[in-house]
Design brief:
44% strand, 266 residues, Immunoglobulin-like, five-stranded mixed beta sheet, mainly beta, globular, six-stranded mixed beta sheet
Length: 266
């Protein structure tokens, strides 16, 4: 009987520990965050340490087809220099009293910005500034919160950024499945995260309500405990062609025992 009671007590302790970790706010997290793209990996310091320095963590994504390189400004400071098209910068510590974000042509520090956004940021939190085109082709700048907190046990989190100017509303499917992963994603929209099981799949981006496929994204692996951002960039007609940029964020040290399993790899 005592042995069973010890097992039950241990079980409750593990559940309490897991719930406590999941409920900890983003700015109180003590794990570094490793970000992986097709260009490589980078690691940002723990959010709690950054918050204690009165800083936020900001990265920059450039998916404006009309510009080979851009500079990203926060306040009056050039924080991101010569960011190439399709690039995702590492997170950078930015004073949390800043709110004005702007983009300029690379090397044109004295010029007027061709897009800007006034967005407050909070200490210890992660943000992504995304330079992307509107449906009329004009440059826009969006600043979104990345909300890097632990996923549900055994799950991955996935969201989509629709950065194509001419693809219209889109649905995102796992190939071979009849229900969409995301439905009716508008141009310039950033979806909320969706929980998914660990798996390796082919994703299909389709015009809303259609069965035709505008973009196929093969061999996409989702691992438990990881948070993924899929950026749909480029043009449905013309160049550069429609493509996907996958960003993989992971709170280092978080335990996850579920591995991707093959699914919809036809």
């Amino acid at each position: 009987m005592r042995f069973n009671q010890k097992i039950i007590s241990l079980g409750f302790a593990l559940i309490t520990l897991a719930l406590s970790a999941a409920c900890t706010s983003e700015s109180a997290r003590t794990e570094p965050v490793t970000t992986t793209t097709d260009k490589g990996a980078s690691t940002a310091p723990p959010a709690k340490e950054v918050e204690q320095r009165d800083k936020s963590l900001v990265r920059f994504i450039h998916v404006l087809p009309s510009f080979a390189e851009v500079d990203g400004f926060v306040g009056t400071a050039k924080e991101f220099d010569k960011v190439a098209y399709r690039s995702v910068t590492p997170y950078k510590e930015i004073p949390d009293n800043q709110s004005m974000f702007a983009i300029k042509r690379a090397g044109k520090d004295g010029a007027q910005p061709f897009a800007q956004n006034d967005e407050g940021i909070s200490g210890g939190k992660h943000y992504t500034a995304i330079a992307m085109p509107a449906t009329d082709g004009k440059a826009t700048l969006h600043v979104v919160s990345d909300k890097l907190t632990p996923t549900a046990a055994g799950k991955a989190n996935v969201r989509v950024v629709h950065a194509s100017p001419d693809a219209g509303e889109v649905d995102v499917f796992v190939k071979g499945q009849t229900s969409s992963l995301f439905s009716g994603v508008n141009p310039q929209a950033v979806t909320n995260y969706s929980d998914v099981d660990p798996m390796t799949v082919t994703l299909e981006v389709r015009p809303q309500g259609a069965k035709t496929v505008a973009l196929t994204i093969p061999n996409v692996s989702f691992e438990a405990g990881h948070l993924y951002t899929i950026v749909v960039a480029g043009k449905a007609k013309g160049t550069p062609k429609l493509e996907a940029i996958k960003i993989d964020d992971k709170l280092d040290g978080m335990m996850n025992d579920a591995r991707p399993t093959p699914a919809a790899m036809r």
